[in-house]
């Protein structure tokens, strides 16, 4: 039985463009789909659902699920719920999950599987929320919070791209605007409070705004219904706001 990777990487050279992720979805011998990522020294293979490595930490679907259960069902010596903190081994395993979901998120973006990229982004953001609440110390929390803006950026891009695939330019614009708002909030509540000078958020915000301008130009969108609603509320035109809310709800129903 051969154990080398020659057959796997044959015809799949490692020659990415700058910033490009080389990924593909293939069928394994047992019929399940897996994702493969070409790296310089070989290939990473990831499961498409659950933990990318296919494991079930302590019987849970993901390590985040286990951490949530562990925090909610702490032993008497662990102290009160809000004060429970992650031990070193929790941090090591959480970091392992962060890395795995990062690789799969980037693969989904490369493959234009936007719904799955959003799913994995949400998992990472939820894991970041858990770390922010239960992290062992400020340095450990900061090591993850510094990347929150990037995950939000990827999520907004995936939402917008998925909306464009479905021919919904207004929805794409709203997704990008939501992404900018989340990045601005993270800028204020994390980077500026710590007087940080190396925040990546401004460049990410600028990229989302450029994407928004491009969509407006290409699809001749002046103002989305949500933008019109925000303006109506701001000028206290509540009758117009009610009409716009009805339009937005009706639009959402037709998309289900």
The structural class is mainly alpha
**How are helices and strands ordered from N to C?**
HEEEHHHHHHHHH
Shape: globular
- Which residue ranges are poorly predicted, with pLDDT under 50 across at least 5 consecutive positions? 76-80
Strands ordered across the widest β-sheet: 1-2-3
Tell me the major beta sheet.
3 strands, antiparallel
Number of DSSP helical runs: 10
- Nearest-angstrom radius of gyration? 21 Å
Strand content: 5-15%
Share of helix, binned: 55-70%
**Overall average residue pLDDT:** 88
Distance between the termini: 49 Å
Oligomer: single chain
Number-wise, the strands total 3
What are its keywords?
3 strands, 60% helix, mainly alpha, 256 residues, globular, 7% strand
Explain what the structure shows.
The chain is 60% helix and 7% strand. The chain is mainly α. Mean pLDDT is 88; it is low at 76-80. It has helices at residues 6-9, 63-72, 88-111, 114-134, 138-145, 148-165, 169-191, 201-219, 225-234, 238-254; strands spanning 23-27, 33-39, 42-47.
């Amino acid at each position: 039985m051969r154990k080398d990777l020659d057959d796997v990487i044959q015809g799949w050279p490692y020659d990415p463009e700058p910033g490009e992720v080389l990924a593909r979805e293939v069928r394994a011998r047992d019929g399940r789909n897996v994702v493969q990522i070409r790296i310089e020294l070989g290939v990473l293979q990831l499961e498409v659902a659950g933990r990318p490595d296919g494991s079930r930490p302590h019987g849970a679907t993901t390590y985040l699920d286990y951490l949530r259960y562990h925090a909610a069902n702490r032993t008497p010596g662990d102290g009160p719920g809000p004060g429970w903190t992650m031990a070193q081994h929790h941090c090591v395993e959480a970091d392992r999950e962060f890395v795995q979901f990062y690789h799969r998120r980037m693969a989904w973006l490369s493959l234009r599987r936007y719904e799955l990229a959003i799913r994995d982004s949400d998992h990472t953001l939820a894991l970041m929320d858990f770390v922010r609440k239960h992290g062992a110390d400020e340095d450990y929390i900061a090591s993850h919070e510094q990347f929150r803006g990037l995950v939000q950026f990827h999520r907004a891009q995936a939402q917008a791209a998925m909306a464009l695939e479905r021919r919904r330019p207004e929805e794409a614009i709203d997704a990008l605007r939501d992404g900018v708002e989340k990045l601005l909030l993270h800028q204020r509540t994390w980077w500026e409070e710590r007087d940080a000078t190396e925040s990546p958020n401004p460049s990410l915000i600028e990229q989302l705004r450029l994407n928004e301008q491009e969509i407006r130009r290409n699809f001749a969108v002046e103002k989305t219904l949500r933008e019109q609603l925000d303006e109506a509320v701001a000028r206290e035109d509540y009758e117009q706001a009610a009409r716009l809310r009805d339009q937005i709800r009706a639009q959402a129903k037709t998309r289900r």
